[in-house]
Amino acid sequence: MEALDLARWQFGITTVYHFIFVPLSIGLSLLVAIMQTMAMRARDPLRKDAWTRMTKFFGSMLIVNFGIGIATGIVQEFQFGMNWSEYARYVGDVFGAPLALEGLAAFFLESVFLGLWIFGWGKMPERIHLLTIWAVAIGTMLSAYFIIAANSFMQHPVGAMLNPETGRAELDPSQGSLWGVLTNITALAAFPHVISGAWLVASAFLVGVASWHMVKHHRAARELGLETEEGAEQDRAARDLYRPTVRFGVIAMVVSAVVLVISGDFQAQIMFKQQPMKMASAEALCETESGAPFSILTVGGPDAFATDCSEVTHLIEIPYLTSFLATHTFDATLQGVDDLNAQYKEDFGETVTDVQGNEVAVDYRPNLFVTYWSFRLMIGLAAFSGIVALWALWATRRGRTTGSKAFQWFTVLAIPMPFLANSAGWVFTEIGRQPWVVHPNPDDPTIRLLTMQGVSGNPGWMVVISLVAFTLVYGVLAVIWFRMMRRAALKGVPLARRDPTSDELDTPTLSFDY
Fold first, then answer.
1. Residues 45-104: pLDDT tens digits?
2. Residues 153 and 181 sit within 8 Å (Cβ to Cβ)
């Protein structure tokens, strides 16, 4: 493999791995903040105690995930200067601004207030302590916005101009400079989609863990007998601790799903205008069509893993739907992959000079197989959460709990599905942009850069060494993270016990016994 391919693999592996933790931190920080708010506002001491326990229970897992996310996120920005130095040279003056804001403003906000939240239990006024976790939640979303703004510049460059003397992109005062980058329509469309995806990840995680314990305590109560003290205590745990948490998680899943669908529809319309090649590839739309159908299943002739339009066959499709998604009209004409490729060759040239000074032929089509199936995996994997939500609502209707083992295991198995859907969405976003690392703005294509022109001149063996090292280190971190999260999740919430000499409940402290 060439250094370019190795550099792309390394950045893809480290980024997708890091993004496993990001949506859970973003979503869980908000859900924990809401749970603590409900605890503070509860007038019933039992209800207040229950939500406080759940806040600390899921808060301990938030901290573990946050720490691993920091460890895996540090390497991301270093890669821009190491494996992608030509890219950094070309757009670093623009791209670096939102990244600097993410580090100096958002990251410090969330990390400082997370520390205050951890060590402030019982030491700060209740309302002030509540504000610290809300500051963490706001900080994680701000951090996400700055990163999305930087990525959106790569998808749709605005707010910048090309300096003909240096050959570098610079912030353009006439386009609002940094404000123009931060208010990029692409970023404004992507942000609610990414955030709602993070909420779906966190709510599915919350429902899965709470459902596991609800079923566990329900079954234990039936085995011990509700007439016994131990059985009654187990039943109270299932009914008063975990059932409300499951219902709360389902509500969060429904809200996030609604925002996902609305924001996804808006984002799709924008991408059809800004990056028609990406969306045509997502539908394996090879030829220009009016009233284009939506493909549910497509194969690539004799090669099931075809990376281009050779002998593409649509087996199952919904008539006119792709045109409707693109323009909200059923008869819109959409350009196909092959026609767009021919147009791009005419507009941007059939050959370009790479970083080694070689004249290289360019194919402007992304990998059709990866783009097509990552788009469907993004949608299909998210559907698991809908099944979980419906089943959980039925299982917990009218104050009930359930002892169904099938429900227990399905909710746990559904936990990774939104994680994988989020990763598939980012794979689609980045692979579908290829071969561009900075996709030209259709209105002003001056600022653009092909991926082959953004890589450093490092030899392949050097990238191999760092790729192997990162993979090994990240593999170890994955084992550590999984064991810590599994231990925290299985530990459950200590049951409420009353001191016979006091009316107060024994609410545990936040635990970090790892």
1. 888 988 999 999 999 999 999 888 887 777 777 778 788 889 999 998 998 899 889 888
2. yes
First to last CA, the chain: 41
Angle at 49 between CA 45 and CA 54, to 5 degrees: 155
Phi and psi, residue 383, nearest 5°? -65, -25
Encode pLDDT of 157-214 as tens digits. 999 999 988 889 999 888 878 899 999 999 999 999 999 999 999 999 999 999 999 9
Amino acid at 230: E
DSSP 3-state assignment of 2? Answer: coil
319-356 burial, b at 16+ Cβ within 10 Å, e below that, comes to: ebbbbbbbeeeeebebbbbbbbbeebeeeeeeeeebbe
Its pTM surpasses 0.85? yes
Spell out the residues 6+ positions from residue 299 whose beta carbon is closer than 8 angstroms to its own: 312, 313, 315
Rounded CA gap, 299 and 320, in Å? 20
CA pair distance 116, 108, nearest whole angstrom: 12
Q: Give the C-alpha separation, 451 to 77, whole Å.
A: 17
What string of H, E and C letters represents the secondary structure of 228-293? CHHHHHHHHHHHHHHHHHHHHHHHHHHHHHHHHHHHHHHHHHHHHHHCHHHHHHHCCCCCCEECCC
What rounded mean pLDDT belongs to the chain? 87
**Are the beta carbons of 20 and 192 closer than 8 angstroms?**
no
The answer to whether the CB of 205 falls within 8 A of the CB of 24 is: yes
Classified as helix, coil or strand, 298 is strand
Residues with Cβ < 8 Å from 509, sequence gap 6 or more?
A: 56, 121, 122
